[in-house]
Amino acid sequence: MSEEYNATQKPVMRSEISRYAYGGFGVNIVSSLFASFAVYFMTDVAGLNVAVAGIVSGVALFFDAVTDVLLGAICDKTVTKMGRYRPYILCGCLILALGALISFTTVPFAGGAKVLYYIFAFCLFKLGSTLVLVPYNALPVIMSSDRAMRNRIVLWAHLAQIPAVVIALFAHNIVAALGGENEAKGWFLLVLIASANMALAMLLCFLGVKRFDTKEEAEKATKAENGERISLGKVFRALKGNKALYCLILAYGTNICANSFMSANQSFYSKYVLQDLGFVSRAALVIGAITIPTFILSNLLTKKISKRNLFIIATIIEMAGAVLLLIGNNAYNGTVALIAISIARTGGLACAILMAMMLPDCVDYGYKLTGFAAAGLITSFMTFADKTGSTLGNIVSTAMLNSAGYVANAEQSPKALSMLILLMSVPFVISDICSLVGMWLYPIRDVDGKIKSKV
Predict the structure, then answer these.
(1) pLDDT (tens digit per residue) in 101-118
(2) Of 402, 264, 255, which is closest to residue 322 (Cα–Cα)?
(3) DSSP 145-214
(4) Contact 129, 387 (CB under 8 A)
């Protein structure tokens, strides 16, 4: 049995990579806005209690847990005229756009009705996100079997996401420009524009990968060696013994959780600790400037250093930024805080692109064990870990803010201010320890070009 999944021998054209990358740009705008500002919108704009906002996120997380993994397995067994993955992208982008819009809409409901409304909105958003992200993240596996080409596809997708992240970081400024004194209107218009762009981007991505995701490829990929259709049970057996996937989930799932604490609390931190919402925009400029070289350097170094070792180095860098924020009164000093957050974000950015490059390797690892490339199922576990980490950050931070006496749009107590600082730093230290453990145990340790996994 081959050690890696022989997806296709078709050369990947630049136009196909660019259209795939544009899809990442589109969906990342919506995802970044949701991850960074959904809780802020519910509390400071829609008027929900911070603890209730945590409950809404918790219910959405439970819903997400079911849909992510189930869809991953279903994708791998799907055979249509449009292939295995593309039909879900086409349908999902519309659901995602609608879920984003209603999540950032204020409604004239009160009490339980308002809570139920946002639970529905969040769950719809999560469903759309699952339908888009699970197949989207699986596409590099079927586009090429060459690890260097896969890395290139992932690199361009992440480079295309940079403007999306910067736009999200400038969200408060854009909202003010669009809505003026009406903050709710500004948020709705921003999300409307982002959702329309996302739908267009995913449509172009859908068309851009049509040579690789076809009915013929789907039929070949879903048949066992004896010619029979692969059962759902065998799809799930691709997870058995996949140490590479589990270690990567531990390393990156905890990392994204810590990043979600920072994303969810950056507006609160800027507004109440630094008393300067412009800090978010300044951080956006710095982070935008370091993102491109971080991504490119990470890709180049994979030719000299294993992705596992690079992930360890990036994790240590991230931890250093978090520790700097905790020292003395650094968290109250805007300049030092900007440096600390930039260092932490640099490490986090490197971890993010390395994870995306390592995920196809986990598919190959599972293929060697079972003879079935469950790209959808395996990437769905990472998608779930990503979204679980983001949601847990929202749930835990809202609970802790509530316990510290946070009150929206009011002067915060010293206890609440201290809690905001802790939420911006301590989760990184905890998650980075988990990440180091995960990468220490990660079994694929060779430099790109050869796969010599310890199976």
Answers:
(1) 999 999 888 888 999 999
(2) 255
(3) S-HHHHHHHHHHHHHHHHHHHHHHHTHHHHHHHHHTT-HHHHHHHHHHHHHHHHHHHHHHHHHHTTTTS-
(4) yes
| Per-residue pLDDT tens over the stretch 36-60 | 788 888 888 888 887 888 788 778 8
Alpha helices (H) in 305-370, listed in sequence order: 307-326, 334-370
Please report, as a single letter, which amino acid is at residue 439. M
Residues 6+ apart with CB under 8 A from 188: 101, 104, 105, 179
SS3 229: strand
120 burial class (0-12, 13-18, 19+ CB within 10 angstroms)?
middle
The DSSP secondary structure of 95-138, one letter per residue, reads: HHHHHHHHHT---S--THHHHHHHHHHHHHHHHHHHHHHHHHHH
CB of 412 within 8 A of CB of 78?
Answer: no
Global pTM?
0.75
Residue from 277, 290, 286, 138 nearest 218 by CA: 138
CB environment 22-44: b (16+ within 10 A), e (fewer): bbbbbbbbbbbbbbbbbbbbbbb
Residue 85, helix vs strand vs coil: coil
